[in-house]
Amino acid sequence: MTEYEGNLISKSFKYAIIVSRFNDFITGRLLEGAKDALIRSGGEEKDFDVIKVPGCFEIPLADFVKVNPGFNPEELHQVAFVFDRTAKGVVVLDDIGFRNVINQNI
């Protein structure tokens, strides 16, 4: 059996950690674990941003806005969310206004 193992090195990379404020007892601990893992693998606190969003529906939008800084989310009319990519396929929520998605699930 061949075994491959990589090194955990996070030097010279920039990261964004996006975390939901909903159920903060759990997500707060996950955030601390993610920050700890980055620091233990050579990263520094200046190398990552923490973005806190209200719930799970805002995570893909926060990710998109982070990598597209010129984008204005106020101009957004529709969002296509890809919730999950697995070997079995892709779960997509499409053609629904962003505010309707949030309002129906609060």
Task: Produce the secondary structure layout.
Elements: E1 15-20, H1 24-40, E2 48-53, H2 59-67, E3 79-86, E4 89-96, H3 98-104
Parallel strand pairs: 1-2
Antiparallel strand pairs: 3-4
Approximately what portion of the residues adopt beta-strand conformation? Answer: 25-35%
Level of helix content? Answer: 25-40%
How widely separated are the two ends? 50 Å
Class by alpha and beta content: alpha+beta
Shape: globular
**Sequence of strands across the biggest β-sheet:** 1-2
Which value, in Å, is the CA radius of gyration? Answer: 17 Å
Question: What does this 3D model show about the protein?
Answer:
There is one protein chain. The protein is of the alpha+beta class and 106 residues long. It has helices at 24-40, 59-67, 98-104, and strands at residues 15-20, 48-53, 79-86, 89-96. It has one domain. 31% of the residues lie in helices and 26% in strands. The strands form two sheets. A two-stranded parallel ribbon has the order 1-2. The radius of gyration is 17 Å and the shape is globular.
Question: Care to give the gist of this entry?
Answer:
This protein has about 110 residues and is α+β, with helices and mostly antiparallel strands. The protein is about 30% helix and about 25% strand.
Descriptive terms for the model:
single chain; alpha+beta; two-stranded antiparallel ribbon; 4 strands; 31% helix; globular
